[in-house]
Amino acid sequence: MTITRKFRSVTWAAAVATAALSCYLISHRVSAERNALEEVERDIALAREDILALNTEFETRSRMSQIERWNRYDFELTSPDAAQFLDGEFQLASLIRDGVRDSGDVRLVSAEDEGETEDRRVDEEVFEPADPDTLETPRIRNASYLVPGDNAARARSQRIAFLDDRFRGDIAGRAAAERRPAENQREGAAEE
Q1: CB 45 within 8 A of CB 116
Q2: DSSP line for 28-95
Q3: Which of 52, 61, 77, 79 is the most exposed place for a label (fewest CB within 10 A)?
Q4: Average pLDDT rounded to a whole number, residues 117-145
């Protein structure tokens, strides 16, 4: 019996060690599964964001035809171009004439070469100096050009940026109609 009693304590120690080792292995396995689950949840969140972005893009592109139709028939919006503000390039060029200064006469300067002419390998005839009397002084000239064109197209483009004359007339008429009853009430109050 003494031998069994001695082995009993060893058996208990082995059982406790086995239980501790199995608990450690189980907790390690649980943490590995938890990390894998968090990675899957991250992938799901990224997939949801991608799906949301793709749905938004799909809805936007599917509505583009409707937006273009509205723009073509109702809004008539266009990107701004020079024709909305100026009649052409010549009118644009005429705007800067005040800022241009005449630079005066052009002065030509030449220097004498003191080297020997035999050492040169370049023909003298190629580089003949220009006669200063025949040169014209460069000047900026103003030019204007009126384009005969369709005023209806221009009026249509201006309608985008400005109020229509008919619309302004409607507003003025309504304002006058609103003003009349107010003036009549003031006159009635003044007479009493």
Answers
A1: no
A2: HHHHHHHHHHHHHHHHHHHHHHHHHHHHHHHHHHHHHHHHHHHIIIII------GGGT-SSHHHHHHT
A3: 79
A4: 61
Q: What is the pLDDT of residues 34-71, one digit of tens each?
A: 999 999 999 999 999 999 999 999 888 888 888 888 88
Domain residue ranges of the chain, discontinuous segments joined by +: 1-77, 153-192
Q: Which residues contact 156 (CB under 8 A, 6 or more apart)?
A: 76
Is this model's pTM higher than 0.70 or not?
no
Give the span between the Cα atoms of 32 and 169, in whole angstroms: 78
What Cα–Cα distance (Å) separates residue 108 from each residue in 129, 158, 177?
10, 51, 75
At position 40, the amino acid (one-letter code) is V
